[in-house]
Structure formats: C-alpha cells, structure tokens
Design brief:
alpha+beta, Nuclear Transport Factor 2, Chain: A, Beta-lactamase, 2 domains, 6-stranded antiparallel sheet, about 20% strand, globular
Length: about 475
C-alpha cells in the first residue's frame, strides 16, 4: 500500500496503520508523511531524489537511512504526539519488531517547506500500546508463527529456546549454519555470541570478590601495576568497569581494523590502547566500554592466577554444565560452529570472515548454544555460580546507568511488566540475546548467524508476551 499523492487540501493517512492515524494537514505533516512514504519504499535512488529535493542537508544520512530501512522493514505511524505548522513529533513502530521510535521533524515556514531538522530515536513501548500476555501454549504457537515469517523473508536463521524451571517449553532451530554446503542449524549449533561474553566476565569478577580475592572498589592499578596511563590506573575502579562508567573507551575503530588478526591475547589489546587517556572522569557518566571488559579479563587473571579462558571454563562453564561454550580461535576447528552472514557491506548475505577477531575475549566474541545459555541461566538463578547476595549485586540495575537498567555485565529491564535480566550481543553476521525472568521462572535464549537485530527481534517478541505467572 502506498501513501496517496500529496495535496494541500487533503489530510494524509499513514499506510498500513491499523488505527488509521492521520497526519495533520500542515507543512510539517505533509513533509513527514512524504518522508515516511519514501523511506518505507526502500528504493535507494528514489529516496536520494526525495532528500535532494526536500532535505538536502540529510543526503549524508542516506546510507544510514537505507540500512535502517533494511533492518526495520519500514515503520508505521502510531500516534501524532506534537504538531505545529512547522514542527511535528510522531510515534512510529518498526514493521519487523516491537520497537517504537519517536520521529521529530522541523520544516521551513516558507514554500517549498524543506526539512531543516529531523531525528528518529528508539523509545520504550508506550503504555497506551500494550501487548497481551499469552498462555504458554499460545505463546509457543505465536512465536513459531512469527519466526516462520522471519525465516521466509530471510530475516532469521538461528536457534530459539524458551524454558521454565529448567525444562524446555520450546526449542527449535531454523535456517542454515553453512549456506554453501547446505548444513542446517540445529540446537547443537554453536553461534558466535558477541558481547554476551560480558556476562561470564562479570560473574567471574564477582566470584573473585565473593572469595575475597579482589574488592570491587579496587582500582585498575592495584592489579595491573605497570599500566602506563596513570589516570586509568589510579582512578578507574573494578566497579566502574563492570557498569561502564570508567571512561575507558572502546576497542573498535581504525586501530582495531588495522591490527585485527594481530590481537591474539588480552595483553595485545592493552599494548594497543594502554597509552590512551580517559574519555571522561570516572563515575561521572555512562558509556559502553568494550575496553573496560578487556581490563576486567586481565584483572581476573591477576586475582585468580589463571588465564581468563581457563578460569571461566573451570568456574563457570563446567559448574553450569556448558560443554559447548568457549572462545577458541577462529582458525581452530570447532565442531558445529556456524558461519556468520552479513549484509553490512553488500546487498546479499556474505560470510563475515573478514570482520572476525582472532579470538573471543573477556569483552565478547566467543560462541555458545541456546541449550548452554539456558544452563547458564539456571546455574545463576540456582546459585551454583554465586550466592544470593552476589547474584543480586550482579543483576540489579545500578544508579548512574541509562534508566538505572545496567547492572554488572547484565541489563536489568522491565518489559511489558515483567522484570528480566541478561545481555545481548551483536556484530556483523552474529546476534544473540539471553533474558532471565526470575519472577515468573522463564528463560529465553535466541542466537542467530545473521546481522543484528535478527535475534533481538525474536527475543523481544517472546518476552513481551510471556505469561504473567
């Protein structure tokens, strides 16, 4: 369905909007409707022409808008929140997921009313658009129907597990682990998990705190005694690294791309970034920091006397019965490890080989299965990894993080009235999400060998509809 042709005397109606929400008959309303129509068509050439004629300052955003169109499937108008002749703010929802966003636009007062400013930002699902909680059998049926559509459109390939009380309610794999050799994904397929490794690093850190081998208030320099940047060494605490308030920055960018295959150990990352200063005074703000979790991996080594990889295998994976989880190098033969496929540099799915690090680290990049992630969740909530006090400390959101929703290597969120904690991970050709919902006893694990948000869409769909008890 397409928008009707623009006409000043007509009120424009958003296509495919079930509530038939109308755009206001204003210059801003007309331009917002026209942008939405052009964006939803997904035709790069046509959208370039639209921007050239109506928002020339946004031509530099063309690639970003086309990538957003690909990952969202387009967006539909749900509500007009604010409207003046030259400004409009509307709520929209992605077509491929539950995600809402706020689209704001300003236009010139004089004709041809060119767009002068525009923002599209994700927002929590508004309370006025509730989703129904389903019974268990209804949830499974709805989930399978939803995923089947994602598979048909080639937007999902991976594995899904919903469990309650340690027993699988739904466990199913979809798509291909290797498209060239037509090898299907199974529940035993090992998918790369990106930043989901941060959960293991955080558990390891708190295990050592529980054993009094480190203190969360200790600074980096207490363990990395020869760390050259004195501000990082003397000011940043373990606690701040765990909740991304240390100001230690990221590892990705031109330097990483240049040295990707040379970065083989945690020490290699530190040698590359050790002279870099702080991005901000520790504790004053929140900014996601992969480098902070690299430092945590080295602190775990110093405090435990073991390599990071040996420690997490012995104290987390073996205790939880996770026999298919690890971080072996990419050039090592790992049975059942899937190939990741990306469209980030192409219009077709291509292997993500040229983007992969040499090996997963304490910041992310290992591999696991949905079965192992469910075992991890059960071991954590069953206090096989940490006692009750430290488990709560690990998983409860902390002040000073976005919406107080980030804990120690875990995100702690309320989704449609249900509290769940866990962590996601994503990079070219990989996406995963683990949600542990202790109040109702459900665990949701989704892994995909496609670009984000392939797995996140599915987990959001499920968690939004979990039974209320």
């Amino acid at each position: 369905m397409r928008f009707p042709k623009l006409a000043s005397a007509l009120v424009l109606v958003s296509a495919l909007c079930l509530a038939q929400v109308e755009f206001p008959n204003t210059p801003a309303g007309h331009q917002c409707a026209a942008w939405l129509q052009s964006f939803n068509r997904g035709d790069r050439s046509a959208h370039r022409n639209f921007l050239q004629n109506n928002a020339p300052s946004r031509l530099t955003h063309l690639d970003r808008e086309m990538e957003l169109r690909r990952t969202t499937g387009g967006v539909d108008l749900k509500k007009v929140q604010e409207s003046t002749p030259t400004k409009i703010a509307v709520m929209v929802q992605e077509r491929l997921s539950e995600q809402f966003a706020l689209l704001t636009m300003e236009v010139q007062a004089e004709k041809p009313h060119q767009i002068t400013a525009m923002e599209l930002n994700a927002i929590p699902r508004p309370a006025e658009f509730p989703l129904p909680h389903l019974g268990e059998s209804e949830l499974v049926a709805a989930t399978k129907k939803y995923i089947d559509k994602q598979v048909v459109s080639d937007d999902f390939s991976g594995a899904v597990m919903i469990a309650k009380g340690g027993k699988a309610v739904m466990a199913q794999a979809y798509g291909l682990a290797d498209r060239e050799h037509n090898i299907p994904n199974t529940l035993k397929t090992r998918f790369r998990i990106g930043s989901m490794n941060k959960m293991f690093t955080a558990v390891a850190t708190l295990q050592l705190a529980e054993a009094q081998k480190l203190d969360l208030k200790d600074t980096v320099g207490k363990y990395l005694t020869d760390y050259p940047n004195k501000d990082v060494a003397s000011k940043v605490t373990i606690q701040q690294l765990l909740k991304h308030t240390g100001g230690t920055g990221d590892i990705f960018g031109p330097e990483f791309a240049e040295h990707r295959l040379e970065l083989r150990t945690l020490e290699d990352y530190v040698r590359l970034y050790r002279n870099r200063g702080l991005k901000f005074e520790p504790g004053t703000r929140w900014e996601y920091s992969n480098y902070g979790f690299i430092l945590l991996g080295l602190i775990i080594e110093k405090a435990s006397g073991q390599s990071y990889y040996d420690y997490v295998r012995e104290h987390i994976f073996e205790r939880a019965g996770m026999s298919s989880t690890g971080s072996e190098p990419e050039d090592a033969a790992v049975a059942n490890r899937s190939i990741g496929y990306t469209k980030m540099e192409s219009s077709t799915w291509t292997p993500n080989t040229q983007t992969l690090p040499y090996r997963g680290t304490s910041a992310g990049g290992g591999y696991s299965t949905v079965e192992d992630l469910t075992r991890f969740a059960e071991a954590l909530t069953g206090h096989k990894l940490l006692d009750i006090l430290y488990t709560d400390m690990l998983t409860n959101g902390k002040p000073g993080t976005p919406d107080n929703s980030y804990a120690y290597g875990f995100q702690d969120r309320l989704v449609n009235g249900t509290r769940c904690f866990g962590h996601g991970g994503g990079a070219p050709g990989m996406n995963g999400d683990l949600r542990i919902c202790p109040g109702i006893g459900y665990v949701v694990a989704v892994l995909a060998n496609l670009d984000p948000p392939a797995a996140n869409r599915v987990s959001e769909f499920i968690v939004n509809r979990l039974p209320e008890k």
